[in-house]
């Protein structure tokens, strides 16, 4: 089986380690499945060829011997079907996994982004402080619900799976934020996820891609 995922050739340092091709890289590492990387750079994201694969010009996109698809959550659910290590064991686990993947992407990730991204993309703007406070209040409600739902379980569905890959990749954005300290159950959950060897392999692979394709001015800095 030949698997190919798309990834940006290079991004600025603040985004390195966080680009969403990390998610299928992680899942494929957990599954022990080899893959190749199709690099997106030098305007390729806006070409008709790439937009036919990823309509928004983003990453990741995915293809194997049978299908092409895009969006990281959909890609992970597809990868899970190919892996004994990740495949749900029954219909209920499959349904729960799907629900948690959607929850990570729809209920949690937008609230994390609303809190942390404005200061990155609009530094120094006078509205940032008030917007962050409001966004943090909403995020806190979601994190409290997530913590309660996780309870004393190690993993969202009872065993590690692609739902945890998505949720951990979302929560990573809060690693350096004080808010995560208020949710020790989630902090411990994130630590468990990131301690997995497959995560280490995935992030090293992504960072290696950026190092290999750094523009001269970045390499010199």
The CATH topology of the largest domain turns out to be Glutathione S-transferase Yfyf (Class Pi), Chain A, domain 2
Give the total of beta strands.
4
Helical residue percent band: 55-70%
Total helices: the number is 9
CATH top level class name of the largest domain: Mainly Alpha
| Basic shape | globular
Order of H and E elements: EHEHEEHHHHHHH
- Alpha carbon gyration radius: 18 Å
Strand content: 5-15%
Tell me the number of structural domains: 2
Task: Give a written overview of the molecule.
The protein is of the alpha+beta class and 221 residues long. The chain has helices at residues 22-31, 48-53, 72-81, 91-121, 128-150, 162-171, 184-194, 197-212, 216-220, and strands spanning 4-8, 36-40, 61-63, 68-70. The chain has two domains: 4-85 and 198-220, Glutaredoxin (3-Layer(aba) Sandwich); 91-196, Glutathione S-transferase Yfyf (Class Pi), Chain A, domain 2. The chain has nine helices and four strands, in the order βαβαββααααααα. It starts with a strand and ends with a helix.
Give a concise summary.
The chain is α+β, with helices and mostly antiparallel strands and 221 residues long.
Which short descriptors sum up this protein?
221 residues, alpha+beta, Glutaredoxin, Glutathione S-transferase Yfyf (Class Pi), Chain A, domain 2, 55% helix
């Amino acid at each position: 089986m030949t698997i190919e995922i798309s990834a940006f050739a290079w991004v600025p340092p603040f985004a390195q380690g966080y680009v969403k091709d990390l998610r299928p890289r992680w899942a494929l590492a957990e599954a022990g499945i080899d893959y190749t990387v199709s690099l997106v750079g030098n305007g390729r994201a806006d070409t008709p060829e790439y937009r036919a694969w990823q309509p928004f010009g983003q990453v990741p996109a995915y293809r194997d011997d049978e299908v092409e698809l895009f969006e990281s959550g959909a890609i992970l659910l597809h990868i899970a079907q190919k892996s004994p290590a990740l495949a749900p064991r029954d219909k209920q686990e499959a349904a729960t996994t799907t629900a948690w993947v959607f929850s990570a992407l729809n209920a949690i990730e937008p609230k994390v982004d609303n809190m942390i991204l404005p200061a990155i993309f609009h530094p120094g703007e006078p509205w940032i402080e008030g917007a962050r406070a409001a966004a943090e209040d909403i995020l806190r409600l979601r994190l409290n619900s997530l913590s309660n739902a996780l309870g004393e379980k190690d993993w969202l569905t009872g065993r590690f799976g692609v739902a945890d890959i998505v949720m951990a990749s979302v929560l990573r954005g809060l690693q350096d934020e004080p808010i995560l300290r208020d949710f020790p159950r989630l902090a411990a959950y994130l630590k468990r996820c990131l301690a997995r060897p497959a995560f280490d392999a995935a992030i090293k692979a992504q960072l290696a891609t950026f190092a290999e394709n750094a523009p001269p001015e970045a390499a010199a800095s």
